[in-house]
């Protein structure tokens, strides 16, 4: 029987350790392999507004480019103060909120009142500085929290007429109430 030298045994042991090390390295390399993908995360859902009013027929779709415009023709038999009260009563009848089946959403509102083709102070109206559940920035109202389909609002919560001058009105002049309402799934997206 041949005698194996210590040097040969050391080389065999080192070769076995090298083979084990290579096998482990390849195994860990295969297990730690990673892949990367880029894409866009899209949150889908149903957010829809519903509008109800008795002031004529609103035109427009309620988007930022095409707002709802309501018209109101003052009755000739009412005094100026009675007409102001009548207009504000009509504003209270314009209601809006999320349609049935809509997801909870944030709502943003802008409302203005003017007389058709008049810029001479025929009507004095303004946005209210407060509206329950809304934060106010200039003429824009935004819900502080997402609301559900059971929450409804009316136009009188946001704008009111305070004075009207008949002496500056002509026959056929119409009072226009412009309402922009937008709903979005996040508060940042509810930007008019």
Tell me about this structure.
Helices cover 21% and strands 29% of the residues. By secondary structure, it is of the alpha+beta class. Strands 2-10-4-7-6 form a 5-stranded antiparallel sheet, with no helix packed on it. The chain has a 3-stranded antiparallel sheet with strand order 1-3-8. Strands 5-9 form a two-stranded antiparallel sheet. It is rod-shaped and about 130 Å long.
Q: What is the N-to-C order of secondary-structure elements (H for helix, E for strand)?
A: HEEHEEEEEEEE
Radius of gyration: 35 Å
**Stretches with pLDDT under 50, minimum 5 residues:** none
- Strand residue percentage: 25-35%
Give the proportion of residues in helices: 10-25%
- N-to-C terminal Cα separation, in Å? 95 Å
Largest sheet: 5 strands, antiparallel
Q: Order of strands in the sheet with the most strands?
A: 2-10-4-7-6
How does the overall form come out from the CA principal axes? rod-shaped
Please tell me the overall pLDDT. 78
Category by helix and strand content: alpha+beta
**DSSP, total strands:** 10
How many helices? The count is 2
At a glance:
By secondary structure, this protein is of the alpha+beta class.
């Amino acid at each position: 029987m041949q005698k194996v030298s210590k040097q040969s045994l050391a080389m065999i042991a080192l070769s076995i350790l090298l083979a084990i090390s290579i096998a482990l390295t390849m195994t860990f390399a295969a297990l730690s392999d990673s892949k990367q993908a880029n894409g866009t995360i899209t949150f889908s859902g149903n957010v829809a507004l519903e509008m109800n009013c008795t002031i004529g027929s609103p035109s427009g779709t309620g988007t930022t480019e095409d707002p709802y415009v309501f018209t109101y023709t003052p009755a000739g038999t009412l005094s100026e103060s009675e007409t102001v009260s009548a207009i504000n009563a009509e504003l209270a009848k314009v209601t809006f909120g999320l349609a049935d089946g809509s997801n909870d959403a944030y709502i943003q509102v802008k409302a203005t009142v003017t007389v058709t083709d008049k810029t001479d102070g025929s009507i004095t109206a303004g946005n209210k500085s407060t509206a329950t559940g809304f934060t106010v920035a200039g003429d824009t109202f935004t819900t502080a929290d997402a609301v559900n389909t059971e929450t409804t609002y009316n136009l009188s919560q946001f704008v009111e007429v305070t004075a009207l001058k008949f002496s500056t009105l002509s026959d056929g002049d119409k009072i226009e109430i412009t309402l922009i309402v937008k709903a979005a799934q996040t508060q940042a997206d509810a930007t008019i």
